[in-house]
Amino acid sequence: MKKRLLSLLTTLAMVAGLTVCLPTVAVSAEAYDIAYSTTIYGMTPSYEDVLSIPDSYAQNYQISDSDAVSYKVVSGDSVTVSSSGLIKPAYVTWYVSGFFYTTAYIEDADTYEELTTGESIVKVTTNNSSYYISVTVEDYSDVYVDQTIENYIDENISSDMTDYEIMEQICRFPALYDYDASYSSAKGMLIYGGGDCWASTSLIIKTCEKLGITAWIRNGNRDPGAGSGHRNAMAELNGVYYELEAGYDEVAPRSYTVTIRTSLFSTKNTTGGVEVYQYDGNESDLFELEIPSEIDGKTVVSIGDYFVSSNSYITKVTIPDTVTYIGYSAFNSCSSLTTLNIPASVRRIEEFAFTNCNALSDLSCDSENEKYTVENNILYNKDKTVIYFAQYSSEITVPSTVETIYEYSFYYNMNLTTVNIPESVTEIGEGAFGNCESLKSVALSEGLTSIGDYAFRSCGSLTSITIPDSVVSIGNYAFYYCDLLTSIIIPETVTSIGDGAFNKCDDLTIYCYSGSYAEQYAIDNEINYVLIDVMLSTVGDLNGDGKVTTADVGLANSHAKGVKQLNDIQFVAADMNDDGKVTTADVGIINAYAKGIR
After folding, report:
1. How far is CA 326 from CA 17, 346, 418, 458, 498, in A?
2. How far apart are CA 556 and CA 582, in angstroms?
3. Which of 457, 484, 479 is closest to 467 using CA atoms?
4. Sequence-distant (≥ 6) Cβ neighbours of residue 515 within 8 angstroms
5. Which of helix, strand or coil describes residue 164?
6. Residue ranges in 193-269 assigned as alpha helix (H)
7. What is the mean pLDDT of each run of 10 residues along the chain (598 residues)?
8. Pairwise CA distance, residues 232 & 586, whole Å
9. SS3 for 441?
10. Secondary structure (H, E, C), 339-377
11. Are residues 307 and 278 in contact, defined by beta-carbon separation less than 8 angstroms?
12. Kind of pairing, strands 325-326 and 298-303?
């Protein structure tokens, strides 16, 4: 069990979306006058049951200097030095408890030791002077892996082979080892004799690198019949692309396949042609992606779900005028995407297609498209009654033609700070403004009847909002985790508020009316509330406590100085001279009430 702990932790961390943080120290010898340099070898103890360091590889270094009186590591953390001048590789102890692991001591935790590699500087002090020794620690397990790959290449690949034969031999290499889900790297596979599809892919890529062949990871989990998390490899040799698969769940010698790719787009048949469901090119070399209108004689009519989602390199996408369908999350979180045109042929765009594309400053749509149109980077239906997507702009005034803000249309818009919604809008769809973390100001107008589930979830900059008198329902978790939201005004017309609508809004005060649904909701959910009708019955009472005190003066003064804005009801209560604004004049009047002068 001990020998597999590190590999298992790494695998589990990747599956769980965690990051394995290993110590690295950048050390430079330039600042020291180095007398001489040497290399010693160590190895993480978990490998020792199956691998040993040959005697020809020095595992320590003894300083032989009769004049030396002390030794000290002055730079780096890859070695230790004894009082007698014996230099050895350094190891760090990790404490493991579930998914949590640390170098800090945890009682009763599992432990494992890990070699620290790199360069360290040792200072040797003599009776008369001092000098420095540079010691580099290398991991013998890495040396072993490199040698094993090089030996395989020497024995199985020759210059008289065709390119395809070379690819076959590269792909055959991991298939000589058993499938073992415990190991997910080339090192684990070569040392322990087995590994999963990730290990096979890693070994294929390392072998290609040794041969000077460009290779990269391919996501294989969208292929028909593939398991979750499956991956294989792509490689390019002399202008030809190869898909290399050796991840089959078998004992050695396992199956493997080499496929010459005529296109870097993975496709599947669909009505009228093919759907491109994945781009398999080397992502780091990809900036402008042009989707072809035809692949292997078949018309490209569809872009699949998650097509290039989370790609951080693409800046521009060209879609052919044969495409009628753009799938769910097809371009979601393409953080560098700036330019995309929707051709006239597109008839359906699924949810999240362009979500979290906050650099998408040049979104356009062919004027001949019968279903969609784009104006000011906002995607609408043709007659502009529905907003489907709005991602780039920081301040948006919704046109008066719009009746529906569609589900997740502004979702994860990290640019948006201000939005004004006209009377024409009757519905804000599910998750419409969810995770708009910069959103500070929302102006809702009369005419709105429903606010959907999760509509403003995790809008972490939103401090106050007024619900219009026309609204009837507020959905489940509509304002969940709006952790800066301190006030919301809810009218008597609201007769439905969903579960968790204001969960994680810890400092929230609901402003509502006596006997209203909102009052009972606040009571049932133990949310602080102020009754508007009671508050307004006491002139100058801004905090709704039934009296006018210095606290109310402070609220009005803060608004007058632009420090903190009052909500709409507080504003009405604070505008003592009815001039449509709250100024120091109003503050003075409220102060007079607080002091009993008026």
Report:
1. 28, 8, 29, 27, 32
2. 7
3. 479
4. none
5. helix
6. 197-210
7. 40 37 47 92 92 97 94 97 97 87 85 94 94 97 98 97 98 98 97 97 98 97 90 97 96 97 96 97 87 98 97 96 98 96 98 94 97 96 96 92 96 95 97 96 97 98 97 98 97 98 97 98 97 93 91 92 91 91 92 88
8. 70
9. strand
10. EEEECCCCCEECCCCCCCCCCCCEEEECCCCCCEEEECC
11. yes
12. parallel
Show the tokens assigned to 135.
Answer: 């010691």
Predicted TM-score of the model (pTM): 0.81
DSSP 469: T
Tokens coding 313: 């390199």
In this predicted model, what pLDDT tens digit does every residue of 253-308 receive, in sequence order? 999 999 999 999 999 999 999 999 999 999 777 799 999 999 999 999 999 999 99
d(CA 422, CA 397): 8
For residue 511, what are the β-bridge partners? 489, 530
Enter the tokens of residue 239. Answer: 């202008």
Nearest to 388 by CA among 336, 427, 352, 436: 352
Instruction: State residue 491 phi and psi, 5-degree precision.
Output: -75, 170
Amino acid at 505: C
- 3-state secondary structure at position 115: strand
- Paired sense of beta strands 178-179 and 130-139, if any: unpaired
